[in-house]
Specification:
344 residues, single chain, 12 helices
Length: 344
């Protein structure tokens, strides 16, 4: 057998191994453990970045070609049409819709129970899909269409997600950015239990308490912002990419620092959501299932925990269901930020 054929066989089975890594949900479904994130982020002034020349559609198609089977998106990101286009470009006679797992999310301005089903139908229309595999409530906070605080309780919103599941518009339902108190309240007051919680997790915000609770209740945690500020330019990150521990682990396993950070999350039994539109990085982020960190190495990385949150939306502080710890700001400072914010 010649060398090129051997390499091709190795790559094929490596792809199968990555694609088959999944977790069981408490509703009987499964969720793939590696997802492509499709948020394109924000500019410095808070303006959301949008796809240009179908760059995100090409990234989605490239990720599926590289072996991903899970795509994570949201109404908020304003790219569901691009995600759907990338999926359609990829599908062919041998690859069917049911082989791809799609997660999307309900935005804050459609939290009334009777608004949820129309909202998911709009997402499905943009995605050009008949159903999604997972539908998440993006935040526990309800707002009106003109940006004012709504008194709609997230328990009412959850009933709308239950309606969507009963209509087979989504296979599973869950929430995002809920704190532990909110998760417990939702769990105790829901007919269909949440299958997934999506929150920010990386070595600088380990979220141990809420993850332990989720483990006890068979709720799978999806980890967004898996790199935190570790790879970025922020100087106040508790952990930097050139830290000796990260460098030594990368050298030990012949991997890159981003791959070590993603593997750290997989070894904690979390779904990872790296985002990129660069094909080489998309492939690199997927190539993380051929090694595991030792338990003591996971513990060492967790020791960098400082509850360091990458982004906290200050303009949402006044909402009674704001889920995160607030920075020490005066009411005047908060009001100024609310009035001048361009963030979502």
């Amino acid at each position: 057998m010649d060398a090129p054929l051997i390499i091709a066989i190795i790559l094929f089975f490596s792809g199968l191994a990555n694609a088959s890594l999944s977790y069981n949900l408490n509703d009987g479904n499964e969720i793939p453990a590696i997802a492509l994130g499709t948020s394109l982020g924000h500019l410095a002034d808070g303006t959301r970045v949008l796809s240009v020349n179908h760059s995100l559609a090409r990234a989605v198609q490239g990720a599926l070609t590289a072996g991903y089977i899970h795509i994570d998106t949201a109404s908020l990101y304003r790219v569901e049409d691009e995600v759907g286009l990338g999926i359609r470009w990829y599908l062919n006679d041998t690859t069917k819709r049911q082989n791809i797992y799609v997660t999307t999310k309900l935005w804050n301005d459609a939290h009334a129970r009777d608004e949820v089903v129309p909202a998911i139908r709009r997402s499905l229309q943009d995605l050009q899909l008949e159903y999604v595999d997972l539908y998440l409530m993006h935040f526990p906070m309800a707002y009106t269409k003109d940006g004012k605080i709504s008194d709609t309780d997230y328990l009412e919103t959850w009933k709308g997600l239950e309606d969507a599941k009963k209509l087979n518009l989504t296979r599973s339902i869950g929430v995002s950015n809920f704190n532990l108190t909110q998760m417990k309240r939702l769990w105790n007051d829901s007919e269909i239990k949440p299958a997934v919680l999506q929150i920010e997790v990386n070595p600088t915000i380990t979220q141990d308490e809420i993850i332990d609770w989720c483990d006890e209740h068979a709720v799978i945690v999806m980890a967004y912002s898996p790199f935190g500020a570790i790879l970025g330019r922020k100087k106040n990150s508790p952990l930097r990419a050139d830290d000796p521990l990260l460098i030594s682990l990368a050298q030990k396993y012949n991997k890159t620092v981003p791959q070590i950070l993603l593997r750290y999350l997989l070894d904690r039994h979390l779904v990872v959501i790296p985002r990129s539109t660069n094909y080489s990085r998309i492939k690199e982020n997927f190539n993380i299932t051929d090694f595991s960190l030792a338990p003591e190495e996971v513990k060492l990385l967790s020791s960098f925990n400082r509850e360091y949150r990458l982004r906290t939306q200050v303009k949402w502080y006044p909402h009674p269901h704001f889920p995160f710890q607030k920075k020490n700001l005066t009411e005047t400072e908060i009001q100024y930020i609310v009035e001048h914010s361009k963030e979502d």
